[in-house]
Design the sequence.
């Protein structure tokens, strides 16, 4: 062990000048520039009809282009304003989403739909890349770095004040609010129950096999095997046995077990989450410093004390990252649970696909993506907290 | 007092059925209040012997008596809580603070928290770590030498009469090792624990051990004081293992103060009493003087170190 070395003072200008970071800003800036000249809105007389594309007004086009060019050009000379620039660009994208949709819907009947078009999406992508690049500079000043999050309060204010209400996806949400809440709830229920069951089964199993190398191989092989079955196929494969089970044992059917619906979906989700939980559990438990474990035993801890006081706390941060992977995976897989009638956000995605209503697809896909990001951030935060608490870099 | 009686540990190779003795018919007495070094080349069974004393390894034959009691009579956990244990990998718990690490065994024994914390801070002081500065640090913030000082404090926390140490200074750089050995001897002078110290380092064994048990191939080659081994090797193996320069090495383990005698020190070159005798010898040769004045910590003349005394020691 050596005393932890302090990283040398980071020079932001130096870092921003690194070719790869420069490249990120060029990429983001160019995407934003292209976006200015693409259509931003699509106006349709109703949700299924064909529509007309609308470009940005010239003034916005020029302003957007200036901002787009400012991103790569100022990266070299003024790295510290990059978070502000990226955050502003992203916030501007959201503002324009509201403003352009509202403008498009002016004087239109209630059933008309204004949806965001390629220009807006490309702009958000470019601005997002710029924000990401700003995070890569490694600015020493906290304040300037936080400005990259400017878009978040802007988005919240826009949403809360109803500025985005003209957007077709939110129109759709407005029309199906009750259903939306129900399906979000179902999605969460599927993910949390699947994850909970996987942890409930996987955690003790990981502990048990971590002391038995041969059993560990078999168990990991099984879990690996399941992971290679495509999720769609796994759902299909479960229909027959669970259906048969429910037919054979009526009391199970009363508990809600059947070939389609929540039971097979939960079974599949649990099986999927099992591998990350198991594998990371094994890696984490086995990775605990042998010196610490030997010392624990040599000082007179019983096997139980050693596990709870030393091995588990030291394994937990690594283990948690496996649980995080599992959670993010499940948010995605739960989106197709609708295919066997289990509901969730997949309901909107698949009904949108069937009727070719892109707004409906987005109503399912955007919350699912946000949910994945949110779950990831939450568990990542917990990991950082544990790691910091226990002083391991 | 720890007594090994015909101690044996054999391993049977599962595939070939071959029998291998890691320790074979080993009888030894570790005297109370002394440091006994278990010395020998790598793989000679030192660690196995040590770990049988606190039952981390179960012997396949023979007996170990601790103060006349067979160690098998106790639950292994209870036995281990009365025996301090220090290892080369140090093995501090990275998720606990220094003071929590030190308090491990008293906590296991269910001693009152406040008293334990107080004692932990005293122990940090004893091993040369300022409690105010180190108590709440985490192991990753310590240097190797500091971490092993904590390791020693942790082993001493429940005030065990016996301390088992497996190459405790082996992972440290020479400078830190030297300082820690010094501090360790100083602590032992005050505490008088019964210590079993495993090492493959001849200098360390000669310097720290009151007794040295030299092992080879799981068997005892020779047991005695460092002096015995160096001057009266009982076999060719012992002589070769200690090497041609064993005498000089042993001198390096003695301090000038240990060999100083009363006498007239006027006009003699002066050296510090903590200087090792090998260095004192080179001062004599360099100054062309057959006697040196030995000073104590306060710069007062403590005695005279003569060529003759060196010859007798060497
Ligand atoms: N579990 C084991 N199975 C078989 N052989 C072992 C086992 N543990 C140790 N040995 C062997 O016993 C011998 C003594 O080991 P050890 O006591 O660790 O030596 P050292 O003197 O280096 O501490 C070595 O040859 C080692 O390979
Ligand atoms: Mg060893």
Sequence:
């Amino acid at each position: 062990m050596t005393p932890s070395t302090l990283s040398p003072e980071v020079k932001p200008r130096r870092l921003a000048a690194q070719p790869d970071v420069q490249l990120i800003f060029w990429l983001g800036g160019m995407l934003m520039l292209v976006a200015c000249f693409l259509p931003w809105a699509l106006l349709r007389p109703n949700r299924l009809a064909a529509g007309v594309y609308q470009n940005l007004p010239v003034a916005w086009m020029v302003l957007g282009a200036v901002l787009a060019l400012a991103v790569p050009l100022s990266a070299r000379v003024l790295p510290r304003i990059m978070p502000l620039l990226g955050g502003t660009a992203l916030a501007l994208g959201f503002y324009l989403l509201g403003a352009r949709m509202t403008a498009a819907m002016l004087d239109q009947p209630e059933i008309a739909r204004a949806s965001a078009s390629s220009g807006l999406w490309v702009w958000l992508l470019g601005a997002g890349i710029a924000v990401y690049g700003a995070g890569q500079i490694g600015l020493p000043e906290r304040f300037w770095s936080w400005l990259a999050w400017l878009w978040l309060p802007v988005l919240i204010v826009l949403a809360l004040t109803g500025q985005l209400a003209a957007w077709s996806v939110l129109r759709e949400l407005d029309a199906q609010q009750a259903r939306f809440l129900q399906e979000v709830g179902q999605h969460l229920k599927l993910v949390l129950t699947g994850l909970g069951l996987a942890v409930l089964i996987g955690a003790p199993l990981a502990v048990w096999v971590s002391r038995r190398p041969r059993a560990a191989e078999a168990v990991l092989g099984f879990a690996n095997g399941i992971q290679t079955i495509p999720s769609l196929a796994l759902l299909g494969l479960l229909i027959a046995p669970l259906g048969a089970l429910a037919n054979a044992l009526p009391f199970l059917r009363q508990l809600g077990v059947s070939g389609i619906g929540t039971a097979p979906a939960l079974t599949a989700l649990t099986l999927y989450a099992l591998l990350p939980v198991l594998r990371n559990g094994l890696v984490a438990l086995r990775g605990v410093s042998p010196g610490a474990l030997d010392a624990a035993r040599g000082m007179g801890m019983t096997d139980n004390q050693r596990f709870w006081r030393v091995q588990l706390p030291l394994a937990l941060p690594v283990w948690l990252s496996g649980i995080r992977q599992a959670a993010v995976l499940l948010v995605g897989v739960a989106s197709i649970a609708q295919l066997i009638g289990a509901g969730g956000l997949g309901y909107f995605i698949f009904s949108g696909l069937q009727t070719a209503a892109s707004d409906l697809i987005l109503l399912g896909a955007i919350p699912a993506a946000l949910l994945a990001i949110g779950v990831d951030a939450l568990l990542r935060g917990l990991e950082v907290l544990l790691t910091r608490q226990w002083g391991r870099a | 007092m720890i007594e090994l009686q015909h101690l044996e540990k054999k391993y049977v190779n599962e595939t070939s059925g071959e029998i291998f003795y890691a320790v074979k018919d080993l009888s030894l007495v570790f005297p109370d209040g002394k440091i006994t070094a278990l010395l020998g080349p790598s793989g000679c069974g030192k660690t196995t012997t040590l770990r049988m004393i606190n039952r981390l390894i179960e012997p396949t034959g023979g007996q170990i008596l601790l103060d006349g009691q067979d160690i098998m009579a106790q639950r292994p956990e209870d036995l281990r809580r009365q025996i301090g244990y220090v290892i080369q990998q140090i093995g501090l718990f990275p998720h606990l603070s220094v003071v929590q690490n030190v308090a491990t065994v008293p906590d296991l024994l269910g001693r009152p928290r406040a008293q334990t914390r107080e004692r932990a801070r005293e122990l940090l002081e004893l091993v040369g770590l300022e409690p105010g500065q180190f108590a709440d640090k985490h192991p990753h913030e310590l240097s190797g030498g500091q971490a092993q000082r904590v390791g020693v404090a942790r082993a001493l926390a429940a005030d065990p009469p016996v301390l088992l140490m497996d190459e405790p200074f082996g992972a440290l750089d020479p400078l830190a090792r030297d300082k820690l050995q010094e501090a360790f001897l100083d602590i032992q002078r005050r505490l008088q624990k019964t210590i079993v110290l495993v090492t493959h380092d001849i200098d360390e064994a000669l310097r720290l051990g009151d007794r040295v048990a030299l092992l080879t191939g799981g068997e005892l080659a020779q047991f005695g004081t460092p002096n015995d081994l160096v001057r009266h090797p009982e076999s060719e193996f012992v002589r070769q293992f200690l090497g041609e320069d064993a005498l000089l090495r042993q001198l390096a383990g003695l301090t000038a103060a240990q060999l100083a005698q009363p006498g007239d020190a006027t006009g003699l070159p002066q050296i510090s009493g903590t200087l090792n005798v090998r260095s004192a010898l080179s001062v004599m040769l360099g100054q062309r003087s057959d006697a040196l004045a030995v000073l104590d910590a306060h710069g007062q003349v403590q005695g005279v170190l003569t060529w003759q005394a060196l010859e007798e020691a060497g």
